[in-house]
Amino acid sequence: MESTYLKAILADVYEKSGVKVYLRPAKEGETPALFECGGIKVEAAVEGTGEEGERLARLVSYLVSSIDPEPFADRREELRAILLGEGGSWRVHRFMTKYSVEDGAVYCIDLVADKHAEEALSQIERCIDERSFVLATDERHIAVIQFVDDEQTPYEFGQFLSQSLYEELGIKASVGVGCEVRSFSEVATSFAQAATALRMSGIFHNEGEVHSYREYLLVRMLEDLPRSRLQDYVEQFRIGGAEEIFGDEEMTATAEAFLESSLNISETSRNLYMHRNTLSYRLDKIERATGLNIRKFSDAVTFRTITILYKLLNS
Q1: Is residue 71 over pLDDT 60?
Q2: φ, ψ for residue 112 (rounded to 5)?
Q3: 255 shares a domain with 126
């Protein structure tokens, strides 16, 4: 068995158990371990001696046998499993070896078309180069794995796909963009980020077709907290008019547009096709209800945080 492949499996064992395994005969202070991987018996060593060493050797043997992969599915099924985090680094290495996939920095996109998913997938295939991958992860979602280049940022590439689908097929798409990762072996991380960005855009009803995971870093940090802690934070702000503002989609949309326009009243008025006086009236209403003057950066940050807390608690 190729040593790199076996090392990938043992790295997965270490991640799951914390046990270090050496692919050589045991030395002093180590216990011999014999396991079967890919139909081949492998002699190895684990740290520790005595009953504890024997226990660790048995554990390694069990874990390797449970990780040892099943026969290959077709390429798209294997890639779908990798994106969804099924299997460890051994699965990625096996896929890269079988299909001669070069390693390098990549990012993922999770895309949902409003109609004609199969036609959308075919169009995306025409938009990517031969190194990249596109596949349907379910009936609605299309995943794209794109190698990093100097021509487009991940966000710009997401915009390019969205625009291409609309101009060529009349298909509107919601696009989530994951962060760049250094190696193809980390592709599942970027895909999870892309899927999160797409999910968050739905929760927050954000306008626009393309959403980057970077937009939602604060949201993800807060989402990981228990709901009871989120409720504590909301109560600590002691905002009596929260429901009047955060329960009013028109008011929250106005505030979000103002924040997205870098607290610029003129730009927000143009983007919303709203008179400056109307916008100022709404900003004043927000200040009366919440005590926050979001024309000020510090109050704008606080308002944004409370908005996230409110939406997470009511999603």
Answers
A1: no
A2: -125, 120
A3: no
Domain residues for the domain of 268 are 225-313
Q: Please state at what angle helix 3-17 crosses helix 89-98, rounded to 10 degrees.
A: 160
Query: How far is Cα 103 from Cα 166, in angstroms, rounded to an integer?
Result: 32
Residue identified by tokens 């855009």 is: 201
Select from 67, 87, 107 the last residue of a domain. 67
Q: Which residues partner with 174 through β-bridges? A: 112
Q: Which residue has the higher pLDDT, 28 or 93?
A: 28
Beta carbons of 300 and 259 less than 8 angstroms apart: yes
Helix (H, G, I), strand (E, B) or coil at 280: helix
pTM of the model: 0.68
CA 250 to chain centre: 29
Question: Which amino acid would we find at residue 314?
Answer: N
Cα–Cα distance, 201 to 195 (Å, whole number) = 10
Over residues 31-62, the pLDDT tens digits come to: 888 876 655 677 888 888 888 888 888 887 77
Q: Would the pLDDT of 1 be above 50?
A: no
Same domain, 46 and 91: no
Is residue 142 classed exposed, middle or buried when 0-12, 13-18 and 19+ CB atoms within 10 A define those classes? buried
Length of the chain: 315
